Amino acid sequence: MHKEPANPDLSILLPHVLVICEKNPVQEKEITFVVKKQLKCLSAENQMVFSPLLFRSGDFSNWDEWLANAREAPLQERKRMALSFQGRVDSPFLKAKPVKTWYFVGGFDNTGCVGFDRVYAPENDCRLGQTYVLAKGDTLRWVSAEVDTDKVLNLGNLIGRRDYVVAYAQTTIEAKQAAEIPMLFGSDDAAVIWLNGTEIHREHVHRPVKESSDLVFSRFQRGKNTILVKVGQRTGDWGLCMRLLDQNNLLSVP
Predict the structure, then answer these.
(1) Alpha-carbon distance 242 to 184, whole Å?
(2) Rounded Cα gap, residues 134 and 221, in angstroms
(3) Residues 222 and 101 in one domain
(4) For the chain, give me the number of helices (H) and strands (E)?
(5) Residue 1 maps to a domain
(6) pTM, two decimal places
(7) Which domain holds residue 189?
(8) Whole-number Å distance between alpha carbons of 184 and 196
(9) Which segments of the chain are extended strands (E)?
(10) pLDDT digits (tens, 9 = 90+) for 25-81
(11) Do 70 and 186 sit in the same domain of this protein?
């Protein structure tokens, strides 16, 4: 009896495809052409992972369908989608707006990495005028900062290269209307993100900052929106980066 071949999981090839695209723009165009032509022949999961290759080249024909499906995808699948944007987040087609201006405060104790799950005062009151007194008597306050040339808020440079501490960063984004906007996010190390007080992302990991480690969906309200990020530090480098895929130009991003 003839048996139809299984639809292979091509997402395992994605890292290799991205390396080729990064090194050879001509081959990237050829790969993008093949993906566009064969997209509907792929499994639903592979369509989701490879569609960003089309977006970063300016083809948004299946953007709305991708958004609807990506929103419901499990965490690990969204991570593979985020990887597809790697190296091309500054493409003029993407409108991936980086958050360049932040306010930060840190570092709260993270000995044994337990501080990541501990609720510190900024989670209850993150008003910029607030000050926070640590157990040792030190007083912390919010300080304004700009990202570096890689669009990373480098907490190691701003607070100091300290081990096993926690910091918070916040920014305010204005939206012309209520809308769900995908977010590309990277952190070193663990991170929690709140939008207008509602948690939208949490991952307890040990990793370096990359421009698109995570794909996070965020529902912005009309007017001002506050994003609060908690970053847990183990050792070494320390920071975060965030870009908003604002294809309809609805957001004013500082």
Answers:
(1) 6
(2) 34
(3) yes
(4) 6, 14
(5) no
(6) 0.90
(7) 96-252
(8) 18
(9) 96-98, 101-109, 131-133, 139-141, 143-146, 153-154, 165-175, 179-188, 190-195, 198-203, 214-220, 223-233, 239-245, 251-252
(10) 778 888 788 888 888 888 888 888 888 888 888 899 889 999 888 988 988 889 888
(11) no
